[in-house]
């Protein structure tokens, strides 16, 4: 039986490759999850930075642009003039970013079973030429 899923396309790589995520309605499970994740880390006084950071490791990071916490996968660890930093892929947003290693935390057990939201999608046999009709 075929099922459908309403998604929002938020990153287009090319005509046959894009990233999407389920549309999160107000009060949805995902919005609830993100609120709880951020509350957990804002209120936690015992949250310690991960001591050993490995490529491919799942973690939670504090993004520098908005100071919110997101789930991520470590892509690489770099030694920079401002200290160790990690290149991470935000698994729910399909974004890569660079964060100080001191902002990387382990994923608490309560948040480990939530499926990642960003889905890489591929079209089978996409057209190589496209036309666009604009109605005025």
Polypeptide structure, described:
It contains one helix and eight strands, in the order ββαββββββ. The model has no long low-confidence stretch (mean pLDDT 84). It has 136 residues and is mainly beta. The longest helix is centred in the N-terminal third of the chain and has 15 residues, at 29-43. The strands form two sheets. A five-stranded antiparallel beta sheet has the order 6-5-4-3-7. The chain has a three-stranded antiparallel beta sheet with strand order 1-2-8, with no helix packed on it.
Keywords:
Tudor; Tdrd12p; 136 residues; mainly beta; 8 strands; RNA helicase activity; 1 helix; hydrolase activity; SNase_OB-fold_sf
Short summary of the structure?
The chain is 11% helix and 38% strand. With 136 residues, it is mainly β.
Summarize the helices and strands and which ones pair or pack.
Blueprint: E1 7-14, E2 17-22, H1 29-43, E3 58-62, E4 69-80, E5 83-90, E6 95-100, E7 104-105, E8 119-122
Antiparallel strand pairs: 1-2, 2-8, 3-4, 3-7, 4-5, 5-6
Organism: Desmophyllum pertusum
InterPro entries: SNase_OB-fold_sf, Tudor, Tudor_domain_containing
Protein name: Tdrd12p
């Amino acid at each position: 039986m075929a099922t459908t899923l309403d998604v929002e396309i938020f990153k287009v790589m090319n005509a046959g490759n894009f990233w999407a995520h389920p549309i999160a309605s107000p009060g949805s499970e995902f919005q609830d999850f993100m609120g709880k994740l951020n509350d957990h880390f804002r209120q936690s006084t015992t949250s310690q930075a991960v001591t050993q950071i490995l490529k491919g490791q799942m973690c939670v990071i504090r993004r520098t642009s908005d100071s919110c916490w997101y789930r991520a996968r470590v892509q690489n660890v770099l030694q920079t003039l401002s200290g160790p930093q990690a290149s991470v892929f935000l698994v729910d947003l399909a974004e890569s970013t660079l964060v100080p290693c001191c902002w990387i935390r382990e994923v608490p057990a309560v948040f480990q079973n939530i499926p990642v939201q960003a889905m890489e999608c591929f079209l089978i046999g996409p057209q190589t030429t496209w036309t666009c009709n604009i109605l005025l």
